[in-house]
Every structure is written in C-alpha cells, then in structure tokens.
Amino acid sequence: MPRYALKVEYHGAPFSGWQRQADRPSVQGAIEAALARLEPGSHTIAAAGRTDAGVHARGQVAQADLAKDWDPFRLSEALNHHLRPDPVAITACARVPDGWHARFSAVERRYTFRILLRRAPAVLEDGQVWQVRHALDAAAMRAGAAHLLGRHDFTTFRSTICQADSPVRTLDALEVEEAEGPSGPEIRLQVRARSFLHNQVRSFAGTLERVGAGAWAPEEVGRALAARDRAACGPVAPPQGLCLAGVGYPVDPFGDR
Questions:
Q1: Going from the N-terminus, what domains does the chain have, and what CATH number goes with each?
Q2: What is the DSSP letter of 17?
Q3: pLDDT in tens, 112-130
Q4: Which residues bind substrate (predicted)?
C-alpha cells in the first residue's frame, strides 16, 4: 500500500484534540472520514504529535496508507474538498517510503505560543492567542527561560496524566520574542525539542508569564525545575495560544514545497 505524508493545518477550537474519540470531534477523525470518502473502508492515520483540545497547527505531519497510487497533488485536493467545512487543510502531500513514520522518523518538533498584550477584547484574534491585559517584561522572561534549556527532568512542567515513560527531555530552544501582531503587541515563545511532555509548553508559557508580570523572579524558574514537583509549576496557560509550527525530519518529505 502506498504511504503518503500529509502536512496539516488546523484551527483547534472545534476539536477535542488531534486524537480520534468515539463521541467527540477530532482532527484525526475528520481526516480519516475524508479518506473514507476517497477509498471506502476504515482508515487509521498517525501524526507527529497529538495536540490537545483547542491547540492549533500550521505544520502538523501525518501519514496515510492507501490502496490506490494517488498523485500527491490530486490527493491533497480531494482531501481538502471532503474536509470542508471543518477548519482543517492539507497544505502539502508527498509519497514516502514504506518505512517512513510521521512520529518515529521525526527528529524535532517546533511550537509557537502567542501572548497578546492588550486590554480591549481580541475580536479578530480570538481563539488564536492568549490575551493578557497587562505588560510583560520580555527580558525577565528570557532570563527565566534560560533555566529550562538543556537536558532535564521536567516533572514540574508536565501534566499529572502524562503517559511518557520518562520526564527527562532535552529542550533545544526557548526563545522569547517581542513582536507587533495584527491586533497589537505580542510576546511569542518559540520552542524546539525532539519531543515534548504532555502540557510542557503550556506549563512553560504560564510560568514565564508570571515572571514577565513580576510575580516570579527569573531564578524561581530554576528552583521550580529542580523541585521536580508539579505543585512547583506556575499556572498552565490556556490552549488557544499554542500552535504546532513544524516537524523536522532527516530528509524533508515535502522538499521545498
């Protein structure tokens, strides 16, 4: 059966998350239903990462095995037709070797977390940012973020229901950027690692917001990390500010597309 890599963009608000659920809408379920319209029968796809309810993606990657030898462009067009009106789009498609795997072949995941700094309601950006109605000190947030870089036991910054075998991960980048977004000033966290724990990025964002607001000193982030205790974490940021920006592979299955 030919295997295809799908680059997927979606707005997470209507979904219970990526993973298929029997009684709730999911991104996986929407794509599998679209595949069934093309090739009748059951379909099971796999993704590079399972995003939570309300989390978005610009660069999620999934794999699908099909009976027919589809032209990748025609497959993406057909899927996009059947995905309407769900806020899901296949932005690239490529034929990949049988041994290639969307999750296990990946060598990095990149997330962006957007914090909008304004008091007026975020009308056009609603559901795509975490709106904070007070100023944040980006320099202090950078100082706090520096404590998290490298290989650590991230027990403090993972959900109590996380199913990962180990809390040890290597955080390759956690950049705090100031940007002028379409609705006002933003703080954007650019986070990169081979893999992440459940709620890890949102835990980083909520904790660093406390640093930026002056409620925490930057060095308290290091003490929270060393505690290896979920109770030492700051608040967990809401999901709508988080977006899976991209997934890295030794060889990009989509080339320059």
A1: 3-105 (3.30.70.580), 108-246 (3.30.70.660)
A2: B
A3: 999 999 999 999 999 999 9
A4: 111
What does the alpha-carbon distance between residue 75 and residue 93 come to, in Å, rounded to a whole number? Answer: 7
Q: How far apart are CA 8 and CA 198, in angstroms?
A: 21
Report pLDDT for 230.
96
Where are any strands of DSSP class E within the chain? Answer: 3-10, 46-47, 56-65, 88-96, 108-117, 130-132, 150-153, 168-181, 184-193, 242-248
Average pLDDT of the segment spanning 218-247: 97
Cβ pair 188, 209 in contact under 8 A: no
User: Per the residue annotation, which of 23, 52, 252, 256 is the catalytic one?
Assistant: 52
- Number of Cβ atoms within 10 Å of the Cβ of 4: 24
Q: pTM of the entire structure?
A: 0.95
Kind of pairing between the strands at 88-96 and 3-10: antiparallel
Could you tell me the two tokens for 145?
């973020």
Active site residue 52: yes
* pLDDT number for residue 226: 98
3-state helix, strand, coil in the chain (%, to 5): 25, 30, 45
Cα–Cα distance for residue pair 114/191, rounded to 1 Å: 11
Q: Which residue has the tokens 């029997």?
A: 22
- 3-state DSSP assignment of residue 179: strand
* Burial (CB count within 10 angstroms: exposed 0-12, middle 13-18, buried 19+), residue 254: middle
Pairing of strands 46-47, 108-117: unpaired
Q: What does the pLDDT read at residue 256?
A: 57
Residue 81 tokens read as: 């037709």
Token digits of residue 207: 């904790």
